[in-house]
Amino acid sequence: MKSIWMDTTMIPRRNSLTGNKRTEVVIIGAGMAGVLTAFYLQRHGVHVVILEANRIGSGQSGFTTAKITSQHNLIYQKLEKSVGKDHARLYGKANQLAVEEYGKLITRNSIQCHYEKKDAYLYSVQESKKLLKEAEIAKELGLPASFVQETNLPFSVCGAVRFTGQAQFNPLEFLKEISSGITIYERTKVIKVHGHDVITDRGVIKAEKIVFASHYPFVNIPGFYFAKMYQEKSYVLELDSVDDLGGMYLGVDKKAYSLRNYDGRLLLGYGSHRTGKVPDTDPFITMRHTAEHLFPKSKILRGWTAQDCMTLDGIPYIGTYSAFRPDWYVATGFGKWGMSSSMVAAKMLSLQITGKRTPYDSVFSPQRHHIKASALRAAEHGLESVKGLSAGIRPGVVNCPHLGCRMIWNQYDKRWECPCHGSGFEINGKICAGPAQRSLPFID
């Protein structure tokens, strides 16, 4: 499935790697986080190379709804309770500065990417108590938050949290421009990383520092990211002939919707479930019924799915890959908020790699231990992984080449999915989503 961004934006092709090379920093993954990190490293005078297995922006950056916001669902009341007010404030500040940095970067470089400043809203049609609390805490933490009772949605709400000064854009148009001066090797698959050597199917690059910006880290040890992350799937429909709603919206109720306009169209988002746990009913059918009800004059143009890496405490992992690999860095676990998190990662990593510290290092550190924040999710993730691994022991089943979990067939996406860590494969076994590195054997 192609997203609207992929169908409307052509990024010039780059050559593949030919032979062995040497550089200061190599970045694995040419999505938003990888390209922005390279952009800021080059500003610091660092020589950077990006390796991309497919095309620039062909991963999750090409399937996002592309909201640039520090409003990450009902996260601030959760963070204040689980990791404390200071960390919650730093998390919010880092993401709000990221929102503002996009605006400065786009304006300064005259980037044409359908950038629009839009307020962001969290809404509920059931109750307002948790929204009032979120608005109160977010405002206290220094964020541009307020509680409102009126929106431009085509249905009544009990209330909404409004964040002013947020934005939206076309992520691939942005990537097309911002990547123009960066050395990127496309169609170059990283097979293995050993020390300072990045081994690909087209040669070896030796680097002083290595950044994993490939959505889900594929090196299992050290780091053990497979034990502290899982993936979630969600769905998007593109509708035409829909009036501008005057903001970006996300429902906080169960089975609520995400809505944002783009160039005379509406992106309607729905659903969120662990990859490999296939819903009982087709999410696209549910969305079509909703579209017909809320926007009867609209026409469905296309639909696609997105897949997001989720951390156990809801905070991305940005920083040193492992204490045992001080020259490796990682940016992953962005949840549903890849645009602001990518900018946070790029600003942080570009400073860390050049020997500087940031006020946010401890908040996003991959080596952090937030027991209170992650205990429940850790238990749930561990249980799902044990179930998948146990099922994979049975003879005659299709196993994931990552760690051997039993694959699940998703009849809606027509793909094989790993219920443990979210790897995805086409019907013929060809890999289309990591952390697995190899395709499945041919499947009839």
From TrEMBL:
Keyword Ubl conjugation: no
Keyword flag Iron: yes
Keyword set, alphabetical order: 2Fe-2S, Disulfide bond, Iron, Iron-sulfur, Membrane, Metal-binding, Transmembrane, Transmembrane helix
Species per Swiss-Prot/TrEMBL record: Lacrimispora algidixylanolytica
GO molecular function: 2 iron, 2 sulfur cluster binding; metal ion binding; monooxygenase activity; oxidoreductase activity, acting on paired donors, with incorporation or reduction of molecular oxygen
Database matches in InterPro entries: FAD-dep_OxRdtase, FAD/NAD-bd_sf, Rieske_2Fe-2S, Rieske_2Fe-2S_sf, Rieske_Fe-S_prot_C
Rieske domain sequence ranges: 400-444
A family per Pfam: DAO
Chain segments annotated as transmembrane: 23-41
PANTHER family: RIESKE 2FE-2S IRON-SULFUR PROTEIN YHFW-RELATED, SARCOSINE DEHYDROGENASE-RELATED
GO cellular component: cytoplasm; membrane
Protein's recorded name: FAD-dependent oxidoreductase
